Amino acid sequence: MKTVYLDNAATTQIDDQVIDVMHTSMKNNYGNPSSIHQFGRKAKSAVETARKNIAKHFNVTANEIIFTAGGTEADNLILHNAVFNLGVKRIITTKIEHHAVLHTCYHLEKTHNILVEYVNLNEFGTIDTVHLEQLLSASKDKTLVSLMLVNNEIGNILDIDEVTEICKKNNALLHSDTVQAIGHYNIDLQKTPLDFMVASAHKFHGPKGVGFAFFRKGFGILPMLHGGEQEMGARSSTENVHAILGMEKALELAVSNLEKDQKEIGELKEYFISELKGFSKDIEFNGLSSDIEKSSYTILNVRFPFTNDMLLFSLDMAGIAISGGSACQSGSNKGSHVLREILNDTDADKTSVRFSFSKYTTKQEIDFVVNYLKENI
Fold it and tell me: Which of 19, 26, 317, 328 is catalytic?
């Protein structure tokens, strides 16, 4: 049976060159980076070289990068640190953030009386920047704004330059969950002065279980995990050397091929949109996902004009891997919190599917999916 993988927002196929780097590291870098003997020093040197190379891609220094087990840990580390170390009393976010941010905010609100406020959204999931300014100016309490750069379900791209200006004007700290953006867009942290951001390697053809948190220089870090003094004292636990080197390679490949991938994958997304519109005028698109300029070229969220709980299952049986929302909530039967927030009840009850693309996606695969939909819907 032919298989088609269109769930790249959940995770991506690991690149063969990344596998080669990790395989070599597993054979040769088996020392503990905290050990003082030559095997440990060799592993430590590899980790620190990777840290420097990753930092260069974002125009920051190596000591501003803290390796983690992925985006969720990085988000938690940043939000907890803002409260416990930097004195943040209020967090402003939206109700369509990833649960790594939302659930952490719920926890901090419940257990530490942190005020959590939510920016208004329009029906496309775009934030109301006037409301953001109103919220920021309404209180002098130290505030952290947390807004994702690319939404993982509808692909909306945040106007990060406007948001950074608003935060700067109101003396607010700014954190962005950039998991769906890193490896797909250039981010220069000198030109876009985020205070905190996060990455997860498996979103750009790297290994699972590794990522990083960016803390702008000058912000101290209190660890959530206590033990050794790894990661400059910010994150105890022996570094995952092989995964870190794999992430370094995956990011190098993503950055070096960025313009090519943006063009080719973007053209496939446009073609898919055109084909879907061609066979059903009743098909609609959630958020701004059909707007090539305002949404990620890797994500398309499609709303069909019916309710069919078996559609995802039938696509899977046909060999087509897609998602109804974030993979982190698969099996929860709660549906997409993002779509519930921005759609009216009628549209939210209709069947929506997230298709997400990568450098491995082909036109033939898009045609296969379109033909299946034509024949079975």
Answer: 328
